[in-house]
Each structure stands twice: as structure tokens, then as C-alpha cells.
Amino acid sequence: MAEMTLRVNGSVRELDVDPRTSLLDLLRERLGLTGTKKGCDHGQCGACTVLLDGRRANACLALAVACDGSEVTTVEGLGGAADGDEPHPLQTAFVERDAFQCGYCTPGQLCSAAGMLAERGPSAVTADLTDDPPLTPEEIRERMSGNLCRCGAYVNIVAAIQEAAR
Amino acid sequence: MNRVEGRDKVTGRARYAFEYPAEDVAYVHPVQAAVTRGRILSVDATDALATPGVLAVLSCAEPPALGSREDAELALFQSDQVAYRGQLVAAVVARAPETAREAAEHGVRIGYDAEPHDVLLRADHPGLYTPEKVNPGMPAETRRGDVEAGFAEAAVTVDATYTTPTLHNNPMEPHATMAVWEENGDLTLYDSTQGAADDRDTIAEVLGLPPERVRVVAPHVGGGFGSKGTTRPNAILAALAARAAGRPVKLALTRQQMYDLTGYRTPTIQRVRLGADAEGRLTAISHEAVEQSSTLMEFAEQTAAPTRVMYAAPNRRTTHRLVRLDVPTPSWMRAPGECPGMFALESAMDELAVAAGIDPIELRIRNEPDVDPENDLPFSSRNLVACLREGARRFGWEGRDPRPGIRLDGRWLIGTGVAASTYPSRRMASTADATVEDGDFVIRIAAADIGTGARTVLTRIAAETLGTAPERVRVEVGDSALPRASLAGGSMGTASWGSAVVRACEALLKNGERGTADTTEDVEGDTGFSRHAFGAQFAEVRVDLDTGEVRVPRLLGVFAAGRILEPKLARSQFVGGMTMGMGMALMEQTIVDERDGGFLNHDLAQYHVAACADVQDIDAVWIEEEDPHLNPMGAKGVGEIGIVGTAAAVANAVHHATGRRVRDLPITPPKLVG
Ligand code: FES
Ligand code: FES
Asked: Domain 2Fe-2S ferredoxin-type spans what residues (chain A) (predicted)?
């Protein structure tokens, strides 16, 4: 077991963890933060996306011990209030636009979108690589393609992100 | 209306099966067969049992007592025979998930006597036979008139073979269960299931318990698409492991394990023959499907069934033949039968249109039947023609130049295609309970909301029947302790549960306090009509001249599905189905390992499902359809028809763009270049 400190949704947690434990399993199994989902455990679906020191990351690909001293924001903390009672504009837009069906990819989509909106610079679909492109639907689709949705809610996910970004 | 549980889903509060808290919970990790056919000679779990934190090992070395072995996929550890690579052969229970996994992967040595295997479906397989029935209880063969005579008199014919690969449902939530044995011997399972009541009954039977001692809880389910419609081994394994460990046990199959253990769509080989006169009127239709099942159990998909209702023709035949291979048992995947079958039929109709020089929409309209062409029953409603016309108008079909391979935009070839959709509109008996509590209405029914929006649409149905606002209605679903209801499958949910909710609410209005309903009799009266939803799908594709990459800038579906109860949610269902259909057209396939058995690409990096960047403009609309012969709501199901016909529309558009007819899904770049 290894000692570590993690700041999760604003509160500091002192933890003793098995070095084999992923950040995802730490959140879900130890800290009871089951909002972050496990869809593949291999970095292939995005369901486990959280904000790790402000950047989006797949929690299934991070060993918990390697996150010692980091700050993690999960879907439960996205709105800023620990009880989720102050929804983030993305959360509101997802509900309004019906940007999910089963809801299992949704926390990952939300954290990924929140991280994506804070990112700068071009993507693979940006015409001019020196550009910091506007957030067109095409840019959103490209930047959100690490988050699979088997229910096929992409059309509404893109619309919701556009709305929240306004 | 927004989804009533929407807020819970976007804040992470909605709990799925694996996420319930329990004291002192343990974890179980499966061990899967490493041969494709053979016998287990020995199980050596010494290392696993010596691992600190390991609580128990299960295997056929000590077969756990079961009440029924009838479902061979659920009769865990009862036999030393291996029926397919990846079958459950042992499992390790431990205090920590990491320990269970490590001990399962390295601490259990299984000795096998491997036998030669046979995993490849072929149209000339000597083991092919005609099953007695196809899913869900339909005849395997139908015949009318004389098809050979019909082909002989035809002015134009098409005779083509279409193939579809093994496909996996891949819901985003893995199949997961937490099993808790109560002190009195009752069992509670938090299980990811499409039907709590049926799941409870199956689990009770397999474990040899009376059903009332088992409870299945599943308020939120992260998708299923058919794969959670039947009880899966994870539920049984969790229960057995919890019994062995003497504490609650959690199990979530890994994404890789899901490919072997949770069902899949059978690969199909379909020969379609069409004959038509010079005006395009069909003289004969023949649809012969070849598909597979496992050596354990028969599952026969109704692949040719949609051909029985689509087009008029005096001479017709549909057949299904099956071969039992050393593979897992196939099962339901979104629109079993209709989905692969309509790829073949609707591709063949496009080929006929090309051969006859007739517009593909016009060809379909000319073959519109007045009554169900196989049983002469009137359709309760049938608006395929209206869908085709409305779609043509919205999509801008008029003036389309039918010549293939002539539209070039830079290095992109452009084409458009159309295909029809259909899906049966059935319902099953359900019960429901409606009460007034603290001035609000509470509806209880063991329905399932797997992302379809069942909770929301039932709220709306109840509110309308009661003449109140949806905010004053609370609907409880997803628990076998609630009044018994049918499962979420076959696009029957809204029709089945809605019927029970309407009746229960009507009863409540009568006596003012409480209403109950059982729709068994209503459903028995559902005869005398052929009931189906219809639709038309339009695709525009761009095909890269050099790489063969296919992009789909536009996909439009126009559906006739009775009364649409919740427009926002219905549209999501249609579009979701079409999105999956586009994935089927262009990328989805599970590759069978001919040499070693099992599936090769069993994860989401290698089994490609449509991602956000693949989806551009997908839209679904519907036409107003009044149908008094369905159910009190006048609604047809919308969960599956969206995936029916999409692949054909895309394939037909690819032909229009390139002149290449791809009859073997998915349409990957190598099939379009060289
Ligand atoms: S669970 Fe981490 S990417 Fe799928
Ligand atoms: S909402 Fe079900 S997977 Fe995205």
C-alpha cells in the first residue's frame, strides 16, 4: 500500500492505496464517486473522463498513486457545488437537448466537454494550423471523438456543447 | 418533455448495477476457456487460493448446486465440456478487484483436452438444417405460389448474395451485477437488465429458488440493445460467488469478456432473388438466410422475416437454415431479423431498380401491397409510401440522375441512396398499479428504462390519462418487486407498459384511490391485423477516390410509427438507431479467429462503433399516423426501426457514388479501391 493525497472536487483526501489501483477504481470503489463510469478500462471509450489538474484525462489509464498531489474534478463536482445542486451550463444543456439516452457515457462526455472548452489551438480538422479556430460543429465532433456513445446521441451532444459554449 | 431522470444522469447521481454501496463487498473475476472445443481435465487453483485476500474459487471441480441446467449458458461450472473459446470455466472471489483479477489470470491453471473446432459459417456447411421456428416463434419457412415460375416469367431478375458479419451490441455499461444474500436466504441482485421480472424468474429457476425469494433491482441501465434482454452469466456468477464468499459480491464483465458472454448478432449469408415484369412489378421474391448458433443452444434469428411483409408478389418464399458451431450462442441485437434482413432485401431492390431502369422510390411504390402479402390480413396502418414521398421531398430526391459514378467534387465521389424500414408493432401483457400518495400520483410497474425514455413516456401517458400535469406523476420502474411487466425488447415497451398504465390510471379515476391493471386479455385480443411500423431512409455519401473512405454528410429517416408520444425522446431513439445503422454499414464487424476460435477484435479500439466525428447531419422526422388497432395510445414502438434500412441506404448511395455494389458488410475502404 502507498500513501497519497488527492484533492477531489475541492476536498483533500489522505489515502492509502494499492499501487495496482487505477484512479477510476479509486474514485468508484474507495471514494464512492460512482458518477465516473467504466466502459472499457482501456482508454478506448472515454466514459471515465475526469479533469485531472484541469485537463481531461481517462481515469482508467491513470494509476492512482501516480496522481499523488493532484486535483481531480469528477461529474459530481462539475457544477462547483459538492451536492451537484448548481448545475454546470453543460449539464443544463445536455438535459435540454436530450444529449443522452442511457446516460452511461454522459459523465465522461460532460467532463470531456468541459475540458475541451478550455483547450486552445488547432485540431486535426483545423484548416490553418497556426489558428485558434472557432468552435464549429466540425471542431466539436473532432475534439469529442474520444467519448463513445453507443446510444448514438452525438447529434444532440454537439448541439448541447454549442449551446453551453455560447 | 425532458427526461425525468435527466438531472440524475448529468450529475452522476443515477446509480447503475455496479454502483450500489454494500458492507464488506467482495469482487469476482471470471476465468475463461482457453480452448474452443474440448474437455477440462484438471483445475489447479492452489496459487489463487494461496493469494492473500482471495476468498473462494469456483469451477467445475466442485460444481455448485443449481435448480436448473436447461439454459446451458447459465448452468455455470456444471460440465467439464468446453463449447466455445471464452466460455466461463472458473472464477476467483477476493476482497479487492485487483486481487481477484490477478488471481484469476495467474493463479488458476486449467488443463484441457482440446478437440478440433469449427467456427466458420459457410453457405455450403454440411451441418445446415432448418430450425422448427425462428425468433420469436415464427415459422422458419414460408411459401406462396410458385417462385420458379415467377422468375421464369420475369422480364428483369436479380439474384445476389449478401453477407453481414458478427456484430456485438456493446452497450456502454458492461453487464454487471451485485448479489446480496440476505440473512433469511433471500437474494437481492442489482443487475443490468432489460427486464427485472423475467430476469428474476430466470435467476430463481437456475438457482432453484422460489421467485418470491429473489429480487432484481435495475432503475438505471446503461444500454442493452438486446444483450441485456436475457439473463447473462454475470448474474448467476455473482449470486454463486456471493454464496461461496458469504458476503455481497460485485461483478462487471470486462469489455473483452462481453464479446464472449453477452450474446451477439449472428453473421448471415443471404441469397435474395427478385423477378419483375418490365414495369417493375414483382413476379417473385425469394429470401434464403443462412446463419449460426452454438452447440449449446439454438437461437435462430428471423433474418428473412421482413421480406414477408414488405412487397406484393404472387410467388414468394422465405427460408432460414442454421448450423451449430463452436461459438457462443447468438442472441438479440437491435432489430434482430429486420436489421440484417432488410440490408439484403433493400440492397436487392436497389439492384432491381438499376436493372429495370426505374427510380428506386417509384419501384417500391409500384410494389406496395394492399394487404399483408403472406397472410392477407389488413394492415392496421401502413404508410411506407407516404414516408418515401415525404423523404424524397425533404431530401431533394427529385431530378436525381440515376447514373452511378459520375458526380465528382474534388477527390470525392458523391451519391445518394434510399431504403425502406419496417418493424413489427407488438405488445405483451403487463400489470401496473396507480395510487395517490401525498396528493401526487404514483405509478408502479416493473418496466425498464435502458435509455429509451420509458420512465418519461410513461409519466406522460399517466398524466394524460389522469388529466394532470406530468410534474404531479411519479413513475417507479426497474424493480421486480413492482407489478410484473414485460421486458424492454422488440420495440414493445411503450405499447405494453403504456397499455397497463392507461388501464391502471382509468381504474384509479373510477375509484379515486387506487387502480390496478392486467392487460393479458387486451393483448390476447390483438388479432385480425398485420401491425408494423414503416419508414424510409435517405443517405448521401462521399467516397474518397484514392482511399475509399466513405463519409456520410446526410442521413434522413422518415418514419410512420403511429402516434409519437414524446417527440424529443422519440427523435433520439430514431437517430440513435440510424447512428448504429451507419456504423453497421461502414465499420462494425467482429472477426472470428478461424484458426484458434473466439473473436479477434474484442474491444472498442478494434471493434469500431460510430464516434462523434463520423456523425454529421442525421435527422429523423415522422408523419402523422392514426392507428386505432394498436393500443390505447395509438403508438408503435420506436426503439428499433431506426436501425432497419440504414445500412442498405448507405450501401445504395455508395453504389450511386462509385458504381460499386458492396454486398458484404461493412463497406470498408479495401472494398472500394483497387
Ligand atoms: S473506461 Fe476509461 S476510457 Fe473507457
Ligand atoms: S447515452 Fe447511452 S451511451 Fe451515451
From this structure: 2-78
B298 is an active site residue: no
Assign a CATH topology to domain B24-116+170-261.
Answer: Aldehyde Oxidoreductase; domain 4 (3.30.365)
Ligand nearest to the CA of A105: 2
Res B485: pLDDT? 98
Angle (nearest 5°) at CA B298 between B293 and B303: 65
Q: Give the chain B residue whose CA is nearest to the CA of A80.
A: B11
**Residue range B431-524 in CATH 3.30.365.10:** yes
Same domain, residue pair A98 and A147: yes
Does A33 contact chain B (CB < 8 Å)?
Answer: yes
Given the cut 0.85, state whether the ipTM is greater than it. yes
Q: Are strands B514-518 and B431-437 parallel, antiparallel or unpaired?
A: antiparallel
CA-nearest residue for atom 3, ligand 1, is A43
User: How far are the Cα atoms of A56, B156, B287, B358 from residue B278, in angstroms, in the given order?
Assistant: 61, 7, 21, 10
- Count structural domains, chain A: 2
Out of B223, B255, B609, the one facing A102 most closely (by C-beta) is B223
Q: Write the pLDDT tens digit of every residue in B60-72.
A: 999 999 999 999 9
Mean pLDDT of B301-321: 98
Task: With beta carbons less than 8 A apart as the criterion, state whether A62 and A98 touch.
Answer: no
Task: Answer whether residue A84 is part of any domain.
Answer: no
Domain ranges of chain B: 24-116+170-261, 133-167+265-425+529-671, 431-524
Atom of ligand 1 nearest to the CA of B604: 4
Cα(B304)–Cα(B99) distance, rounded to whole angstroms? 48
Are A94 and A152 within one domain?
yes
Examine the pLDDT at A83 and tell me if it is beyond 60.
Answer: no
How many CA atoms are closer than 13 Å to the CA of B152, on its beta-carbon side? 4
pLDDT for residue B674:
77
Give me the CATH code for the B133-167+265-425+529-671 domain, please: 3.30.365.10
**Cα distance from B49 to chain A (closest Cα, Å)?**
20
The shares of helix, strand and coil residues in chain B, as percent rounded to the nearest 5, are 30, 25, 45
Closest Cβ–Cβ partner in B15, B172, B450 for A105: B172
| CA atoms lying within 13 Å on the CB side of residue B167 | 29
**CATH number of domain containing A149:** 1.10.150.120
Report the residue count for chain B. 674
Edge-first strand listing for the sheet containing B88-94: B54-59, B88-94, B26-32, B249-252, B176-181, B187-191, B214-217
Whether A83 is in a domain gets the answer no
- Whole-number percent of chain B with pLDDT over 70: 100
Q: Which of A77, A103, A119 is the last residue of a domain?
A: A77
